[in-house]
Amino acid sequence: MKRLMAIILAMLSLGAAAQTAAQFKEKYDRQVRSVGSDGVGVEYILGRWSAAYPDDTDMLEARFNYYLAKSRTEEVQKIDAARYLGQKPVLSLKDSLGRNVNYFTVPVFNDSLFRISQKSIDRAIELAPDALVYRFDKIGALAIYEKDSPDMAATAMLDLIDYDASAHPGWTFKGEKVSREDFESAVQEYCYLFYRTGSANSYESFRILSERMLKENPKSVLFLNNMGAYWQVAKRDDKKAAKYYRKVLKLNPGDETARSNLAIIERNKRKNK
Length: 273
What we know:
Radius of gyration: 24 Å
Order of helices and strands: HHHHEEEHHHEEHHHHH
Strand content: 5-15%
Number of helices: 12
Helix content: 55-70%
Shape: flat
Number of strands: 5
Distance between the termini: 92 Å
Structural class: mainly alpha
Strand order of the largest sheet: 1-3-2
């Protein structure tokens, strides 16, 4: 009986291996389009795919997406804020004193399943360190997981920037080469994510990343504008903010972001006289 079971398992294994990694990916993509990242049948495909090609980075990313989706649920929570994670409340009521009581949809995670997703994407990064898609998968997931305190996400971004500065990798994104301008724009997307979250911790992450990018390129108008926004919005220090906006306008007199924000600062200054 044991020998028969061994033969059956060996035959199943050979059947899985007979399919190429590309064929597994095609089946996986088709199933996900039909039922979603964690729908019926996805786990079965992933199991066979991972058995046949344990170091296929497409499989590892698929496994990451599956366990990330399985780990996440949402619940409505009462939060004492006008906005949370950059979003407006889904419900706003009045208490007995007429004050707003706001409710927000908040992501909630199963920690053990989330760790499996992270382990999968970490392996993909290890196998393909110059593929930005896997690094951004990880950072994006961490940012959602940490909500208004994105410390691990910010650390992962700093690691990415440090690797870029030290190794000068030939970055790719889904097989396409990434230019220097595209790399900076991608980093800016995550800076903006932290800025839009609007908490004290996320603002600090926004500042730290912007300063780190300016260390590599002191004349980057993107990150000089970020520093202006940090001082203007997060710290309410218009004087320091204006210094950064003026630096931007020296480099690019037509920059609308710096020009409009500097106009707001000047208008506020006149009002406060």
